[in-house]
Write a structure and sequence with these properties.
By secondary structure, the chain is α/β, with parallel strands linked by helices. The chain folds into two domains: 103 residues, Alpha-Beta Plaits; 157 residues, 3-Layer(aba) Sandwich (Rossmann fold), CATH 3.40.50.150. Helix content is 33%, strand content 30%. Helix 6 packs parallel to helix 7 and helix 9 runs parallel beside helix 10. It is globular. 42% of the residues are buried.
Length: 313
């Protein structure tokens, strides 16, 4: 099948908003190419071999959000609507630079779409022990490594984005052998699987996106963790009764502000709520929501424009 690729030029702070616009328009998947993610990761002590210098040299100075639509009779109309929505957003004072929002399109073959992004994704270390290894890459395991094999497909969560990377650092700190973990908005399943590798005895990974659920289940099987990790389709924690020692939510600030109150009944005594996907400008809002819900922040991490908080009741 041929697909229509839509590419929007934006900024690091605008990427999530643009991605949401494209997904709401019916995109079957999005990807974000951000030079900052790559260059900041290469400077980090925990990550290596993220990308070839030659590939980096050809990356755009803009942040590119790429979306894929079925190239059918409605494709052009869909792209016109996307263009109108982007123009509307461009007129709003968001308090940060969102970039030009220029929209480019091209036709791509399914195989090209499925394979092209893989050149950006190499094995890397997250925190002290976790190593994320793409399923198609070789890696020589070192003593003490907890290797997680991952094929994210079109689901969010390769581990290379600051928000996911910081969550894994927090999981290393708070996940203890035998504990229970809930991953809300699991994407590729990377955080739930990381928790299982760190010794969690029971992990519930939830996502509203059926594609993410499919990918997370495949990655769970790939890592031989189906006896520990349960992947479920669901809207946040609605209609769930499970409780956990650690709840992790790598989503966006508005959802975290909504979720932190209801999440309390799902935390066991002494439990930790880890939340990420928080742009720096929204940190105060999240901090206030956590305090209002009765949490005390016990750990804060920041990378680039993003913040990750861990809080207890």
């Amino acid at each position: 099948m041929d697909w229509m690729e839509a590419v929007v030029h934006t900024t690091t702070m605008g990427a999530d908003l643009v991605s949401e616009v494209l997904m709401n328009a019916g995109a079957v998947g999005t990807s974000i190419e951000d030079r900052y993610d790559v260059t900041s990761s290469k400077k980090s002590d925990g990550m290596w071999d993220m990308i070839d210098e030659e590939v980096l040299a050809h990356m755009s100075e803009d942040v590119l959000v790429k979306a894929y639509f079925k190239n059918d009779a409605s494709a052009q109309e869909t792209l016109m609507l996307v263009g109108e929505k982007l123009r509307e957003i461009g007129k709003i004072d968001l308090g940060f630079d969102i970039g030009s929002l220029a929209l480019d399109t091209q036709n791509v073959h399914e195989q090209d779409w499925a394979e092209n992004w893989k050149k950006y994704y190499k094995p890397f270390r997250a925190g002290e022990r976790l190593v994320i290894k793409p399923s198609w890459e070789a890696y020589e395991q070192q003593e003490g490594d907890l290797v997680l094999e991952l094929d994210p497909g079109m689901a969010f969560g390769t581990g290379t984005h600051e928000t996911t990377f910081m969550c894994m650092e927090q999981l290393e700190k708070y996940v203890k052998p035998g504990c229970r973990v809930i991953d809300v908005g699991c994407g590729s399943g990377i955080l739930g699987l990381a928790a299982a590798k760190l010794g969690a005895s029971d992990v519930l990974a939830i996502d509203l996106d059926e594609l993410a659920v499919k990918v997370a289940r495949e990655n769970t099987e790939k890592n031989g963790l189906t006896d520990v990790v349960r992947v479920a389709h669901g809207d946040l924690l609605e209609r769930r009764e499970e409780q956990a020692d650690v709840i992790v939510a790598n989503i966006i600030a508005d959802v975290i502000c909504y979720l932190c109150g209801p999440a309390r009944k799902h935390l066991l005594p002494g439990g930790i709520f880890i939340c990420s996907g928080i742009i720096r400008e929204r940190e105060e809002d999240v901090q206030n929501a956590l305090a209002a819900a009765g949490y005390t922040v016990c750990s804060r991490l920041a990378k680039g424009e993003w913040v990750c908080l861990a809080a207890h009741q």
